[in-house]
Here is the input.
Amino acid sequence: MNPNTPNHPASPLGRSERMLLAAVAAALVLLLLWLRGGLHPEAPLERMARQSLDLPVALANGRPTLVEFYADWCEACRAMAPAMARFEHRHHGELDVVLLNVDNPRWQSEIERYEVNGIPQLELFDAAGQALGRSLGARSEAELEALTESLITGTPLPRQAGVGATSSLAASTAETPLAPVGPRSHG
Here is the structure.
C-alpha cells in the first residue's frame, strides 16, 4: 500500500487525537507564559522598581518613605518581594516605596550615602523626608507591616532584630579605619 494515498494515515494518531494533543500543548504553553508573567517576563522587584517614584520626589511629597536596596540575584530580596508587593498595594497613597537595585550604577551615590553594605537594606523616612532608621536583612510580611504602620502613624520603629535608628558617628571616633564593604560582598 502506498503511504501517500488518502486511505493510509501518515501518523499513527487519528485527526481527533492530533487536535487534542495540539490543544493540550497550547494550553501548557499559555499556562507557562501566565506563570512566568507574560511574554516579557521580568523580575517582580524590577517591575516594582520601575513603578516606584524617584527618591527625591518620594522624600519631598509629604508621605513616609521606605527605600529598599535590592538585587535580582539576592535570594532574600526575591523571597521578600511578594510581601513587599502586597503591602505596597495595601498602603498605596499612604506610604511611598522606592526600590533601588545595587547592580545599577545609577544608584551608586545613594548606595554610598546610605552606607549599603548588605541587602536587602531598608531605609525608613518620615513624612518630612527625615531618616528614621534602617532595617538590615529579610523581613516577613508581619515585620514589614509593623514597620509600615510605624511610618504611617509616626510612632517609634518596632523592636525587631536588625532594625534601628540611624545615627552618624564622627570619623574621628574610629581608631582603625575599616576596609570598605559593599552590598555585593555577601554571598
Observations:
- DSSP finds six helices and five strands in the chain.
